[in-house]
Structure formats: structure tokens, C-alpha cells
Description:
Elements: H1 2-7, H2 9-26, H3 30-36, H4 38-44, H5 47-58
Helix pairs in contact: 2-5
Bound molecules: protoporphyrin IX containing FE.
Protoporphyrin IX containing FE binds next to α2 and α5.
Amino acid sequence: MLKDIGKRPFITVGFTAFVLLIPLAVTSPKAMVRKLGRRWQTLHRAIYPIAALAILHFW
Length: 59
Ligand code: HEM
């Protein structure tokens, strides 16, 4: 498995993007948006670097 990961670095990029999306998914329900207040936007701006990772993964 480790050799495979070394041979296909795009898998690590996709996996990183996936893991980084989890906190955004968890904080997406309306109740969580209300609870986080202004911090919600700060956290959800992470979508931009994550989207860049997804494009890199696709490329
Ligand atoms: C555990 C995480 C992930 C793994 C293991 C993974 C793995 C893969 C693999 C094996 C492919 C096919 C490569 C090929 O055709 O040779 C692929 C394609 C792709 N992945 Fe991921 N990926 C992951 C996460 C993500 C995430 C989070 C996104 C977007 C947010 C994403 C977007 C894409 C796209 C757009 C393609 C191209 C699909 C196509 O060619 O039809 N992946 N991924």
C-alpha cells in the first residue's frame, strides 16, 4: 500500500481534500452555522484552498 501511495501522489492530494472537507460538512447544518457565528465564515473560507487541492487531484 505504501509503495502504491508513493507511486500515485494524486491519491494523497485527494485524500487530504476529503479529510479537510469533513469539518465543513459537520458545520454545515443550520444549527451549527448559528452556533459558530462569525467563526463559521472563517472556517468555511477553507473551501478555496480545498477546491485548489481537488483541481490538483483531478489534474
Ligand atoms: C479518499 C479520497 C480520494 C481518493 C482515494 C480518490 C481517488 C481517485 C481516483 C483513483 C481517481 C481516478 C483516477 C484515474 O482515473 O486514473 C479519482 C478521480 C477523481 N477525483 Fe478523486 N479521490 C479522493 C478524493 C476526491 C475529492 C475529495 C474530490 C473532489 C472534491 C475528488 C475529485 C476527483 C475527480 C473530479 C476525479 C476525476 C473523475 C473523472 O475522471 O471522471 N476526489 N480520484
